[in-house]
Amino acid sequence: MVIKCFPLGAMYTNCYLAYDETTKEAYFFDCGGKNIERLNLFIQENDLILKYIVLTHGHGDHIEGLNLFAKTYPEAKIYVGVEEKEFLYNSNLSLSSRIFGEDFIFEGQAIAVKEGDMIGEFKTIDTPGHTIGSKCFYYEAENILISGDTMFRRSYGRYDLPTGNINSLYESLEKLSKLPEKTVVYSAHSEPTTIAEEKIFLRNIGVLF
Known about the structure:
By secondary structure, this protein is of the alpha/beta class. The chain has helices at 37-45, 60-63, 66-72, 91-94, 96-100, 166-176, 195-204, and strands at residues 2-8, 13-19, 25-29, 49-54, 77-81, 111-113, 118-119, 122-126, 135-139, 144-148, 151-152, 155-156, 184-187, 193-194. Helix content is 24%, strand content 29%. The strands form 3 sheets. Strands 1-2-3-4-5-6 form a 6-stranded mixed sheet, with helices on one face. A 6-stranded mixed sheet has the order 7-8-9-10-13-14. It has a two-stranded antiparallel ribbon with strand order 11-12.
């Protein structure tokens, strides 16, 4: 599985294109902005088939480009955590006006996912805390984790926004720490890291014991 980062939107959210070089099937994780020209060109030049658009959670810097993505890739299915479908239609929850200056309402439909659901080859992991329905997505065959705003390199997501909860977040970080240590973690707002590295960090700050 190839992972390529495309920073999108005003916050330069790390959005990830994951694809199989043999089948050409592709996933896109988060839709942080509308500046998708470079992404579109890459997909065309590599003859990729975008089958899955996957949202780690419903904050504005992860969904701003969703309507554009849905129109550009109408055959791709869109997935979001079951607890966060409402974020796509409620700007008070998505904080879209605060994050990118306008209210956002998704014009399509999304498939709700929960713990254990498979999206292609990626397994859904419930990781609430940053938001109530934050999800991470794990590709076991190659130990790849898309972590959204739950786990960053030497940090983790904030928990002081609507539906956030510090205790849930710490439990989610502990849960992720049980993945194989060689797992590479791709987050929305930091450089890639590994579970092994973050376990050391989390122990040092008292999240893990």
